[in-house]
Write a structure and sequence with these properties.
By secondary structure, the protein is α/β, with parallel strands linked by helices. The protein has 14 helices and 17 strands. It is globular and about 55 Å long. Bound molecules: iron/sulfur cluster. Its cofactor is [4Fe-4S] cluster. Keywords: 4Fe-4S, Chaperone, Cytoplasm, Heme, Iron, Iron-sulfur, Membrane, Metal-binding, S-adenosyl-L-methionine, Transmembrane, Transmembrane helix.
Length: 364
């Protein structure tokens, strides 16, 4: 079976941000080297089962920009490149140097996703980030100097203490840097994080109404500057939508490589063990490090397609909906939350802001 989309999970970071809910750990140099070898080994094992012919490769984390360029090069050297269109690496602004950017370009990286999060110093302090807004500016400059034009800036909104004005200022500063893509995520309070504890103790407070207003205003600002709001949290200039993420949202098969990475192929979905030492040990012994496996039946795949499709500006083909669901669609159209475009049901901008709540109507 041919696989066109690969994700590599690099679980190491220099510090752990107090809101982070991913499987990440502080990375020591030795661990990074061992992990790189293990990722290569896992690819080799997977090649016995699948024909890997990637159109998109995404190296995410964690902070993969902590790895040496040589390690990224080794990792990429075992992949076919004939049909590769998009090769993204996620980067922390403080880890990007002139040399690293040039070496990434040389090994074929053509898209960099920079974890800016905010251009406001106070927001960055609250988020426990070590970088300053100036590091984001410098990163963009260095990437562009190296010839990498396709730059995404990741932002968070709903940060404690952040108001609408400061979010708009942050985004305006981002726009001044002329990125091709902006991702904008609402801060979530993941269990077992210091932020979750602070929320429970009443030190932080969520204001969902304010969050909706922030997203609405942000969407307004970015679309006015030519960005297409093509997924609930993603904005791109024409021609710069993320091919890799679109593959997820369209329900395509993908392999996730690395500790805690998730894969979906046909009706099977599995997740690797969320422990880098156990992961390295298993693949070194020639085994896949799968911790959980589930079978997806036709109905659950259908529901997932609806859930993911509703979050995008492509919507969902009407053929996915039964009679009962079409009545819900009529009501959503009447309420101005959705519209029919050709043979598809698409949420309006107002609907998109509450896409997850709307999806619940179709999930039962
Ligand atoms: S840099 Fe990103 S992945 Fe690493 S701890 Fe912070 S939020 Fe999590």
């Amino acid at each position: 079976m041919r696989i066109e989309h690969l994700y590599f999970h690099f679980p190491f970071c220099a510090i752990i941000c107090p809101y982070c809910g991913f499987y990440v750990t502080i990375g020591k140099r030795k661990d990074i080297a061992l992990l790189t070898e293990a990722l290569i080994r896992e690819v080799e094992i997977l090649k016995d089962y699948y024909s890997l012919d990637p159109k998109t490769v995404y190296i995410g984390g964690g902070t993969p920009s902590l790895a040496k360029s040589e390690e990224i090069k080794q990792l990429l050297s075992i992949l076919r490149k004939e049909n590769l269109q998009e090769l993204t690496i996620e980067a922390n602004p403080r880890t990007i140097t002139e040399q690293k950017a040039a070496e990434w370009k040389e090994v074929g990286v053509n898209r960099v996703s920079v974890g800016a999060q905010s251009m406001n110093e106070q927001d960055l302090l609250i988020l426990g980030r070590r970088h300053k807004p100036k590091d984001v500016v410098d990163s963009v400059y260095l990437l562009r100097k190296a010839g990498i034009e396709n730059i995404n800036l990741d932002f968070i909104f709903g940060i404690p203490g952040q108001d609408l004005q400061s979010l708009k200022q942050s985004l305006q500063m981002a726009l001044d840097l002329a990125p091709k893509h902006i991702s904008l995520y609402c801060l979530t309070y993941e269990e077992n994080t210091p932020f979750f504890k602070a929320l429970q103790e009443g030190k932080f407070r969520r204001d969902e109404q304010k969050e909706i207003e922030m997203m609405y205003e942000a969407s307004d600002l970015l679309t006015k500057h030519g960005f297409i709001h093509y997924e609930i949290s993603n904005f791109a200039l024409p021609g710069y939508k993320s091919l890799h993420n679109q593959a997820y949202w369209q329900g395509k098969d993908y392999l996730g490589i690395g500790p805690s990475a998730c894969s979906t192929v046909g009706t099977k979905r599995w997740k690797n063990v969320a422990d880098h030492s156990l992961y390295v040990k298993a693949v070194k012994e020639g085994q896949l490090a799968i911790a959980e496996m589930e079978s997806l039946d036709g109905e659950s795949k259908n529901k997932e397609k609806i859930f993911l499709g509703l979050r995008t500006n492509q919507g969902v083909a009407l053929s996915y909906f039964g009679q009962k669901e079409r009545e819900v669609i009529q009501w959503l159209v009447f309420e101005g939350l959705g519209r029919i475009v050709g043979e598809r049901f698409v949420l309006t901008r107002r609907g998109l802001l509450v896409a997850d709540s709307i999806a619940l109507y179709f999930m039962n």
